[in-house]
Amino acid sequence: MNNTSLDDTIAISLSVNGTNVSARVSPRGSLVDFLRHGLGLTGSHVGCEHGVCGACNVIVEGRVVRGCLMLAVQADGAQITTIDSMSPDRYVLALQQAFYERAALQCGFCTSGMILQAAELLRRNETPTREEIRDALSGNYCRCTGYHAIVDAVQTASHALNATPSGNRLPG
Amino acid sequence: MSSNGAGKAAGYIGKGMPRAATRRLVSGRGRYVDDISLKGELHAAFLRSPRPHASFKILETTEAKAVDGVIAVLTVEDIETVCGPWQCTLANAPNLFSPPQRPLALQRVVFQGEPIAMVVAMSRAQAEDGLERIVVEYDDLPAVTSIEDAIAGEARTHAGAPSNLALEYVQSTSGVELAFDKAAHVVHQRLKFNRKTGVPLEPRGILASYDPADDAMLVHASHQMPHQLQLIIADLLDMQLNKVRVICPDVGGGFGIKMHIYPEEMAVCAATKILGRPVKYVADRIESMLSDVHAREHVVEASMAIDSDGRISALKVDDIQGLGAYSVYPRSSTAEGFSALRAMGGAYKIEQFSARLRSVLQNKVMTGQYRSVGHPVAVAITEALIEQGARARGESSIVFRKRNFVKASEMPWVSPAGGRMIDLSHYECLDKLLILSGHAELERQITVWREQGRVVGFGLASFVEFTATGAEGYGRAGVLVSSQDTVIVAMDPTGMVTVQSSAAEIGQGIQQGLAQIIADAVGLPIVSIRVNLGDTQASPHGGGAWSSRGAAITGEVAWQAGRKLRAELLSAAAAILQTEAEQLDLVEGDVIEKPSGRARMTVAELSEMIQFRPYDLPEGLRPQLTVAHGGGRGGDTFLPTNGVQAALVEIDKMSGKVVVLKHWVVEDCGRVINPLLVDEQIRGGVVQGIGEALYEHCRYTEDGQFASGTLADYLLPMAADMPDVSVAHVETPYSGSVLGAKGAGEAGACAAPAAILNAVNAALAPFGGSVDTLPISPVAVLRAMGALQGVAA
User: What is the pLDDT of residues B535-572, one digit of tens each?
Assistant: First the structure.
């Protein structure tokens, strides 16, 4: 046993959506709980708490991470982006527009995680096939849509991105 | 088409439009229950029984109370001071046996996961710390788990109960036995359906806040029926109905799981009343898996008699349904069994029918209504029999289906199972599906694939689904569930319209559908309509989201409300413009002179005048800018819809894994309000149905331990495993309404399991084997292929 009890807190400093944050957090608290309840950033959702569903996805140091599998203390010093960001990148913007237009969401609970995961796919593969999209999103459960519309929307976003020179912001 | 002009105006009805509300959701701006906080809120956690059936005694709670942050440890004795028990009863099935249920168990637990104590603390983590320090003594009792054991009745689900039979129901027409005696062919099918559950991605959650000064309660809940929940909270906590306000904010999926009264939600309402502070509880995933209602645990034996002309002359069904430890309150778990019986025989004209339903109690969590309640069971058994019947006659099942469909000229026809068949399009749907799927070419292709050694099969399933349940459904059972809705339409001084309704939005898109209907009904641009749902304080009592009722019931009421507002506006404009209302039209917010098409004024100008300068209006003119309309459907308590689904599957010979290569649906939900959203309802339902057919299984061990507590144990369909789903429609408007809309939200789930089952069995036919259990396991497939001979189970 070390000297840290469950009720002790640990100081962390990190950047969240471009803002520097310092806080004291419980060592047992997850990153997503800290973001949601500590900072009020409720865009990422808690669907399973064991890393299967992907609803809690956030971006840590440029990579999509399960917010429920990472402790808040592990985020000390990290740069974090969530769906709540007021300046989404071009991939997220294109996906948000395509998801909206294609009705690629119903209840919306999976959507934040789904869009962040799809954005990561498009960042490394701007023209994915339907199979590649389905593979990339297989760590994200959607219980409403049956995925077909989501695959369509990711393809639409991919086409829109390819029609727009990089760096230009799409109409939101 | 109605003479009333529905859909003729600007034409939002029938137009595929995205849901305005999803702009918020794609930006992470949704507000689900756990995103809402109240000052001073406390967090609840539940101590759950690890035993499926046991007497218990709570020996020690003082240590739990001493844990940092713990405010209270509550047991049934505390809760019962403010919240009474509930009991599922049905006036039309007075022999139903289901004991009273409480927010926390009293002396005996009857399923694993049943809550027995509650810790309320400053944080959820501290509440969970408290749970670990409660000391309980259990004295195990024998547990009943399988349907077979429940029927055998050696052990009792409720110690001391006379049997495990909650309900037995039989019905028969007079000529069933004669039809079987005279039959040219009799085919038989047994199917076993394992439990599954809805798995809305947002777990159940509630935030309740009691104000002792006003004896009032504010409840935020992830629930499908705000008014039903309000009514029951008020009843069980002995409060005045209008002092309970239930808000259902964004709801992260329902699928029927969030329509019931659960112990945890009632315990939270009791706790806030006891403590006078807001209390929140959100289930974690393991809690959801073991405490949300499960569904569709059935063993069905059925026989079909076919006469020498190839007509189905009779159907006999024996269904045993597992209820869990209680019949769920208030809608009853037996509703699933009755719903399955009503849908038996589906699309076919079968005059002789007998059925026996036995609903049994088990030491498992309750079963309850889940998307397409009961229908998937009926469709799977009926369509499996259809395939068998066609095989017995040595003809194509398409020919056999078409010979036996209920023809348009025979409708309305009341089936002996109790469904009034009206406005259905079996032939059109099947023909359209055969074209959509390229069936003729596909059959040739399947032959080629088989020659190449691939194991592939194509399966069809016709279905009838009853939707938009009317008042008699629950009313005759004495269950206080509203099938009515009220829609309030109010125009503001800028010409914008705010709508309040008792419908509920759970992701299906009814908010958008109502906006489209009202825009057309009044004659306004869609952007001027804002629809608010899910708040009992804003809307009069009504039904919420169940039974695919939104378009058919709320939509119809919304149309009528919109027409009332239109009439008010046109009369006012006519008086002001010194003409007759009949000479004017209202199009996209402009008051138009009919012959010339000339715009005379805008509704914004009209509304502003009525609001701020009523003295300028002609003498005696008092136009109403807020109108309401309420109602439900009269006839056709169970409004039938129909369709056909088909699946193409391939079996991996090595593993027995079934891969769905493609799925097709042609369905008829009458007038389609928004094809974009309806198609996605169908697709989502299909994939839930594929999950039901191939993956999803709430497993219990023989001794009643729940073994599917995580999403790693309970398999959901994932993107990579799912096919694209082609959807098309036939539109046969419901003749009993102006809009002609019927339910669409459950049609996908209704027949997908049957189509997959038939496709798998078609693939297995060359091997001489078949499967008869859902979900279809790879092991069962390998066995049916003869690939596991000599291998022990």
Answer: 999 999 999 999 999 999 999 999 999 999 999 999 99
Instruction: Quickly tell me which residue has 């952007």 as its tokens.
Output: B527
Check CB contact of B68 with chain A, cutoff 8 Å: yes
Q: Do A98 and A61 share a structural domain?
A: no
Which among B125, B710, B724 is the nearest to A28, CB-wise?
Answer: B125
Of chain A, the percentage scoring pLDDT greater than 70 comes to: 91
Residues of B in contact with A52 (CB under 8 A): 710-712
Same-domain pairing of A75 and A20: yes
Q: Could you please report the per-residue DSSP string of B109-142?
A: E-STT-EEEEEEESSHHHHHHHHTT-EEEEEE--
Among B201, B207, B724, pick the best mutation site for testing chain A contact (most A Cβ within 10 A).
Answer: B201
CB pair distance less than 8 Å for A109 and B32:
yes
Same domain, A95 and A157: yes
pTM over 0.80: yes
Q: What's the pLDDT tens digit per position in B499-540?
A: 999 999 999 999 999 999 999 999 999 999 999 999 999 999
Tell me which chain B residue has its CA closest to the CA of residue A140: B718
**pLDDT at residue B80, as a whole number:** 97
**Distance from the B25 Cα atom to the nearest Cα atom in chain A, whole angstroms:** 5
How much is the ipTM here? 0.97
Give the total number of structural domains in chain A.
2
- Residue A34 located in a structural domain: yes
The string of pLDDT tens digits covering residues A93-149 is 999 999 999 999 999 999 999 999 999 999 999 999 999 999 999 999 999 999 999
Q: How far apart are the first and last CA of chain A?
A: 52
Indicate whether B433 pLDDT > 70. yes
- Cα separation, B557 vs B541, in Å, equals 14
The boundaries of the domain holding residue A118 are 90-163
Whether chain A has a CB inside 8 Å of the CB on B599: the answer is no
List domains and CATH numbers for chain B: 22-30+484-631 (3.30.365.10), 33-141+203-251+257-291 (3.90.1170.50), 294-471+635-784 (3.30.365.10)
Domain boundary among A50, A81, A112: A81
In a domain, A116, yes or no: yes
Q: Residue B719: its chain A contacts at CB < 8 A? A: 133-135, 137-138, 140, 142, 147, 150-151
Is residue A159 located within the same domain as residue A94?
yes
Per-residue pLDDT band for B74 (boundaries 50, 70, 90) equals: very high
Name the token pair of B664.
């097709």
Q: In what side-by-side order are the strands of the sheet with B590-593?
A: B584-587, B590-593, B599-602
A169 assigned to some structural domain: no
Nearest residue, CB atoms, A146 vs list B25, B31, B684: B684
CB contact under 8 A, A26 and B199: no
Residue B483: partners with Cβ closer than 8 Å, 6 or more residues away? B469, B470, B471, B473, B474, B475, B543, B547, B549, B553, B632, B633
B6: pLDDT strictly greater than 50 = no
CATH number at residue A37: 3.10.20.30
B204 touches chain A (CB under 8 A): no
Span B454-459, average pLDDT: 98
In chain B, which residues have their Cβ closer than 8 Å to the Cβ of A58? none
**Closest CA of chain B from A44, distance in Å:** 7
Buried/exposed A3-30: b ≥16 CB within 10 Å, e otherwise: eeeeeeeeebebebbeeebebebbeebb
User: What's the CATH code of the domain at A128?
Assistant: 1.10.150.120
* Last residue in a domain, options A18, A52, A81: A81
Residue A171 domain-assigned?
A: no
Q: Is the dihedral of CA B319, B324, B326, B327 positive or negative?
A: negative
Please name which of B667, B666, B647, B668 lies closest in space to residue B658, comparing C-alpha atoms.
Answer: B647
Is pLDDT at A2 greater than 50 in this prediction?
no
